[in-house]
Design a protein that fits this description.
The chain is built from no helices and 14 strands. By secondary structure, it is an all-beta fold.
């Protein structure tokens, strides 16, 4: 199966709820400058079909499906924001929310598999932030890194421990 995106792909994530549903985060000009687009695709007998596309003013570097709601998707943006999209909402209602605490590019998103309202973001501002989808601000900021954070993941054996990667 093939699907040609208009921009360069950065992340591909499979839905934990819907078989064959795929989110693709993309950036114009390899993320150096330009816009981004969050695609949502569905695998069908005829190939990959676009279900939704959300445009952003800066490139997108990662995306993550909510572990709590099959219609919620988060995107990591080059402008330092995290966009929350709702596939069940009309286009004019998206993004549902924009979290804007990072001061540089957000490069990583990861939802908690146990505490499904929580997710982590890793940024080139050298921080990891802990978010609750139901709250307007981050719940914690981890500023122990001395350089860009490229990935922030939950420790598989504990829902309350995060593993950063620089």
């Amino acid at each position: 199966m093939r699907f040609k995106t208009e921009f360069n792909g950065y992340a591909v994530k499979f839905s934990p709820f819907e078989d064959g549903r795929i989110a693709v985060a993309t950036s114009q000009n390899f993320g150096i400058i330009g816009n981004g687009r969050q695609y949502v695709l569905q695998a069908t007998q005829q190939g990959l079909q676009q279900i939704a596309a959300f445009d952003t003013k800066d490139g997108l570097y990662d995306c993550a499906w909510s572990e709590e709601n099959e219609n919620i998707l988060a995107s990591a943006s080059g402008d330092g924001s995290i966009k929350i999209w709702d596939l069940s909402a009309p286009p004019h209602a998206n993004p549902l929310r924009s979290f804007e605490e990072h001061t540089r590019e957000v490069y990583s998103l990861n939802w908690n598999m146990s505490k499904r309202n929580l997710f982590l973001s890793g940024s080139w501002d050298d921080t990891i932030k802990l978010w609750d989808i139901n709250r307007p601000e981050s719940q914690a900021t981890f500023a122990e890194h001395t350089y860009c954070v490229y990935a922030a993941n939950w420790y598989e054996l504990s829902a309350s421990i995060a593993k950063p990667t620089s």
